[in-house]
Design brief:
Radius of gyration: 19 Å
Distance between the termini: 18 Å
Oligomer: single chain
Strand order of the largest sheet: 1-2
Strand content: under 5%
Number of helices: 4
Mean pLDDT: 82
Helix content: 40-55%
Order of helices and strands: HHEHEH
Largest sheet: 2 strands, antiparallel
Number of strands: 2
Low-confidence stretches: none
Length: 133
């Protein structure tokens, strides 16, 4: 029976990639807390992860018709960025609330670590199965 890494790793590998991208977006929000007219951005993590898992279930393969075509790159498409509505609008047009962004960043970091731990457990389980332990 062949091993399917997509089934073995479940959704955790995609979650790690998305959590990493979200961390970058949230860090950008925090870095621009004092930038006039900067609008805080974020992604809908759950919706993006669901769309990625549905796309993988469809398993569409691309065919190239010419040898010079660019090969498709594996990974997750860029998630749709949304604007965050500020709790307290600033006079300079900035919509970043530093406390909210820091809390979201900390939550994302914790969930990133949890996804990494789950994925590490899956890899360790596969290694033990391959070794016959």
């Amino acid at each position: 029976m062949p091993i399917s890494f997509e089934r073995a790793f479940s959704v955790h590998d995609d979650a790690l990639l998305l959590r990493g991208r979200r961390a970058s977006i949230l860090a950008s929000n925090i870095a621009n807390v004092d930038t006039p007219n900067y609008k805080a951005r974020d992604i809908d993590f759950g919706a993006t992860l669901r769309s990625v898992s549905m796309r993988q279930q469809e398993s569409v393969t691309l065919a190239s018709t010419h040898r010079n075509h660019i090969a498709p790159q594996p990974g997750i498409a860029q998630p749709a960025l949304m604007y965050r509505n500020p709790l307290h609008p600033a006079l300079d047009g900035n919509s970043v609330d530093a406390h909210v962004e820091q809390a979201k960043f900390a939550e994302n970091a914790m969930l990133y670590q949890a996804s990494f731990t789950f994925l590490n457990g899956k890899v360790n389980g596969l290694m033990k199965a391959l070794k016959g332990e």
